[in-house]
Design a protein that fits this description.
By secondary structure, this protein is mainly α. 61% of the residues lie in helices and 5% in strands.
Length: 128
């Protein structure tokens, strides 16, 4: 049934594995002899329900954390952009990770153009 849907999501893929296993096992037992009763198969449905709740909870938590991270990044970006002093963020390799507008104008470059360039381009006497 999942193959008939036009768009597939992570939930579809996650639930298709136990659903397919459940269906395959049911068919094999139906054609190979009734090993288990209908009640046994109905009791296995709780695994599918628990898996569905787990996936939904994980997706909800991931969404919540992504929204929180996005809001934090916007706040930090606003703080850095609003500072009147020049701020240059450098990574462990000595490359410029980010520059606020005051820092870019101090050195006469565009802030986007400085990202990824060596700090020695801005401060030639600096060694990393």
């Amino acid at each position: 049934m999942l193959l008939l849907w036009g768009t597939r999501t992570v939930i579809d893929a996650w639930l298709s594995v136990p659903a397919t296993a459940f269906l395959l096992e049911s068919l094999l037992n139906a054609f190979g002899g009734a090993q288990y009763t209908v009640g046994w198969y109905l009791s296995r449905a709780d695994v599918l329900i628990a898996t569905a709740f787990l996936v939904i909870a994980l997706l909800y938590e991931t969404n919540r954390l992504a929204r929180f991270l996005s809001a934090s990044e916007r706040r930090l970006s606003g703080l850095i952009s609003g500072v009147a002093d020049a701020l240059i963020i450098v990574d462990s390799r000595g490359l410029v990770a980010s520059v606020n507008p005051a820092g870019a104008s101090l050195f006469g470059f565009d802030a986007d153009a400085l990202a990824g360039t060596p700090l020695s381009r801005l401060l030639p006497n600096t060694t990393w």
